[in-house]
Amino acid sequence: MGSSTGWSPSPAPASWPAAWAPKIAGSCTFPAAPICCRWISIDRSSKIALRTFSKRCCDVAYQRKDRFYQRAKQEGYRSRAAYKLEQLDRRLRLFAPGQRVVDLGCAPGGWLQVAARAVGRKGRVVGIDIEEVAPLGLEQVRVLRADIFDAATAGRLRELLEGPPDVVLSDMAPHTCGDRDADHSRSVELVAAAGRLAGDWLRPGGWFVAKVFEGGAINDLVQELGEWFGELRRIRPEATRDGSRELYLAGRRAGSRRSP
Question: DSSP letter string over 121-140?
């Protein structure tokens, strides 16, 4: 890693644009709600529930039959989602040795493992999550237990990265309530908020990759994020479960980085 570049990540604004203000999700319909749901602040008055990959509820039986789930267990990955990132990297060439990477909503750590291996010991990977992440034993990985959208988090990130990130990842997803339109809307709002942070933080040419649920508002989201990332690609990795509405948006930071 190089020396500090004087980079200063912009904190989340005190008030997000009204179009990005997420609605409060309804009561969790999973039988083990305290296990499968967690909350982060989007602004001072709004919260959105995020699913964790560590949830042990309605999809466990499916996971046990899934080849990527079984493979992750055998190969020591924290989650089957690790293979999605591997597939995205092969397609987009996201990573290179020595890079700085930020993983938003990093629990339980599968994407941290993939990124750490890709950037090597001279790279730096910082994960941010409000959930505790068990130590990975990887010297190039640091985890902040923090709210992604808290203004103080940006300062802590700066200290750990010592320069603007080359890649910002987000595999976050809102808690699904069963209403396809509502789930899609919450997903779009979350990606828009993450994209705003990534647009402020990334070096020019750096990659932003984020999961979103398919739906009618994606075109508007892509247009909104175009200010920072130009044209975003839409990708569905092979490891995505059959029947899932997930896809990934990927784009490179256009132009010069905004002043913090």
Answer: TTSEEEEEESS-------TT
Sorted by where each begins, the domain ranges of the chain are 32-252
Pairing outcome for strands 246-252 and 233-235: antiparallel
**pTM (2 decimals)?**
0.76
Counting Cβ atoms within 10 Å, is residue 48 exposed (0-12), middle (13-18) or buried (19+)?
Answer: buried
Residues 193/153, Cβ–Cβ less than 8 Å: no
Catalytic residues: 211
CA distance 247 to 125: 23
From residue 24, alpha-carbon distances to 39, 41, 55, 214, 224 in Å are: 10, 10, 20, 20, 22
User: At 17, is the secondary structure helix, strand, or coil?
Assistant: coil
CATH architecture label of 32-252: 3-Layer(aba) Sandwich (3.40)
Q: Tens digits of per-residue pLDDT, 87-131?
A: 999 999 999 999 999 999 999 999 999 999 999 999 999 999 999
Determine the length of the chain. Answer: 260
Do residues 175 and 37 touch, judged by C-beta distance below 8 A?
A: yes
